[in-house]
């Protein structure tokens, strides 16, 4: 079968070349990478020199060019997630980045430091949990897309046939992709979340799978990547597929999430929630139409569920989204606004049933994908729910889990797993699996975009909003605030470098990493800390009179508070901003 990659590999290293040996049964292929010329060729095992240092690897993630030259990135550890349809799914858990160069003596001190920073960026991306692959199955496509393919598609390599939106190492594999004869060494890797469970209801065993595929188009971190780009790609776009496999029959329900598809931004500025800014000069309809043109082609009908607040700073975005849908006037697109926070205030999360009842008929119309044990397609999914909140994380995941449960109820009844009149919510053992899996999905998506676990997962796990859940949400919100303001610039740069949005040019006269910050932006935080410290010291070491002490306290107190407000007023100048590339073509 052409659509496979080699499963068992060995890496042989010499001073001149990397040799990647395919160890699958009956295979003699060896991929040779010249460390000097960077040439990639296909050879046989007898060409591996016996002096080479050998180690096992589990896949080639690709190559990347940094200041010191090219690097080879390989998967060194993996864990088995499970099997479905006789295909093994793996999570990559550790990687190694190998330099083509044998020495760094050709670099200046500045180049050495830049190269070290770039390597730290690549390592950071690789440290974010959620890289999955299979050597025999195409993880980038839904069951429905895979069922509607040509014989020519079936004969393509995994790399050729993959949905490019979800191949996170596409840029890293560019050299291998140019040579079809080495495609079996090229392993497409997705980023997101996968969980697989063998379940039982009424003594009937079935596999339940949840897959979230994170798009690598307009990828980034929470506050630096919002809205859409000029091509119509939405920030934090994730395709989530729920799969059931029972007695040879397969059922699938697909949903999507993505940032509000207009040109808007929300740059960090030290405020807890920076005010969203809608671009006043951009051609919003052009980007909006590009976005939905592609969504309609890929998924069919669109039912938009917009969960943002309908008052305060989020209101203009809700109004803009509603106006764009109305102006587009496409009958394939329906728009539903549901103010999640207003409807569920005072922990009244039972009121989510209002939304579910409102979209029930639409969900029945969209249906789901079902293929029987003979391979015959019984039903197709005619469209998707496209849900969003501001981040497309916490509120969005709650709603998606409820919609997915309703679809699963219908699927299991049709397959004969659930009896007539039985409710999925009454199956305690499965409900625990289901809720925890969706909460884990929320955490994975949130960590990849916002840097922390998701909020509101107590409801997803238990079906109830709890005081402990509120405390955990508060803690995660504080961590998000810190990361969004003081480390997300580095994280954004790392993603842009990894995905090829920025390419390193060692001949650049000026390094983008050496952007000097105005001295006042270094001095002001120090002054504030010193002034606040002196204020505390004056209180602890009271003078002869309280008048004298109060004078000192007032002086240093005013100095610290004044400096704090100067910093807050110039907040955007103190945050950790990206240095490599600004992907906001229209901002």
In short:
36% of the residues lie in helices and 23% in strands. The protein is an alpha+beta fold. A hairpin with a 5-residue loop joins strand 18 and strand 19.
Description:
This protein has 587 residues and is α+β, with helices and mostly antiparallel strands. The chain is 36% helix and 23% strand. Among the domains are: 220-422, no CATH class; 519-585. Strands 6, 7, 8, 9, 10, 11, 12, 13, 16, 17, 18, 19 and 20 form a 13-stranded mixed beta sheet that branches. Strands 4-3-2-1-5 form a 5-stranded antiparallel beta sheet, with no helix packed on it. Helix 1 packs across helix 14, helix 10 (394-415) runs antiparallel to helix 11 and helix 15 (519-540) runs antiparallel to helix 16. It is globular, with a radius of gyration of 27 Å.
Q: Which keywords apply here?
A:
587 residues, 13-stranded mixed beta sheet, five-stranded antiparallel beta sheet, 16 helices, globular, phosphatidylinositol-4-phosphate phosphatase activity, Phosphatidylinositol-3-phosphatase SAC1, membrane, phosphatidylinositol-3-phosphate phosphatase activity
Can you summarize the main beta sheet? Answer: 13 strands, mixed
Oligomer, anyone? Answer: single chain
Contiguous uncertain segments of 5+ residues: 583-587
Share of residues in strands = 15-25%
- What count of helical segments does DSSP give? 16
Average pLDDT over all residues: 90
Radius of gyration: 27 Å
Structural class: alpha+beta
Helical content (DSSP H or I, runs of 4+):
25-40%
Number of strands: 20
Q: How would you describe the shape?
A: globular
Distance between the termini: 47 Å
Pfam family, one: Syja_N
Transmembrane segments: 57-75, 521-543, 549-569
Enzyme class: hydrolase
Keywords: Membrane, Transmembrane, Transmembrane helix
